[in-house]
Structures are given as structure tokens and as C-alpha cells.
Design brief:
By secondary structure, the protein is mainly beta. 0% of the residues lie in helices and 49% in strands.
Length: 115
């Protein structure tokens, strides 16, 4: 079974930083692009960022471009999201997803940006 477990969320003040991690198992991680998605309270899921299999090609939603950085470690089957200059509107449950889309996502981690 595919398992995707995000971690690293928490409460952070506006302007702060967090690094999210995602542990993947149950599939050959290095053969798939990976993505991050988020869902804010009362809203639908939103794509945040994607990375190709080798980690050299990345894409970002306009809302996070320049503030977030996606990366991966294929040797450890891990996906990461470095989030800087966090804003209250970044508050959401963050999920990692298998592939370029956000449908195949696992357990999320809550990020709350508040003073």
C-alpha cells in the first residue's frame, strides 16, 4: 500500500519558517514526481508545488513562489517543503502527494500561522 506521511507542522508567527517532511513507502519513490498540496479551513484542496523524479525541475503556485522550496531525497524516500516568510493565509493542512497532481495524497500536517 502507498503510504505518505507528512510531518513538521505547527504554530508559527507571521514571517517565520517551517520545514515539512513527507515519508513515502509502498512504491518506488524515485520513479515518481511528487507534489505538495494544502487545504485551508473551509476551502477545497489547493496544489502548492511539484518536483520531478530527479529533483532538478520544480514548479510552484503563484501564492508561494519565492517563499517555498520543494526538494527530495530519493535515497531516503523523503520529500520536503521549506516554507519561509509565512503568512496567515498559509494556514492549512499540508499533504504530500504522489505524482504531479494532488488526488493521491496521504496524511497531512497542520500549519498554523498566527501571532
Amino acid at each position: 500500500d502507498v503510504q505518505l506521511q507528512a510531518s513538521g507542522g505547527g504554530l508559527v508567527q507571521p514571517g517565520g519558517s517551517l520545514r515539512l517532511s513527507c515519508a513515502a513507502s509502498g512504491f518506488t519513490f524515485s520513479r515518481y514526481a511528487m507534489s505538495w498540496a494544502r487545504q485551508a479551513p473551509g476551502k477545497g484542496p489547493e496544489w502548492v508545488s511539484s518536483i520531478n523524479t530527479g529533483g532538478r525541475s520544480t514548479t510552484y503556485a503563484d501564492s508561494v513562489k519565492g517563499r517555498f522550496t520543494i526538494s527530495r531525497d530519493n535515497a531516503k524516500n523523503m520529500l520536503y517543503l521549506q516554507m519561509n516568510s509565512l503568512k496567515p493565509e498559509d494556514t492549512a493542512v499540508y499533504y504530500c502527494a504522489k505524482g504531479w497532481g494532488i488526488l493521491d495524497r496521504g496524511q497531512g500536517t497542520l500549519v498554523t500561522v498566527s501571532s
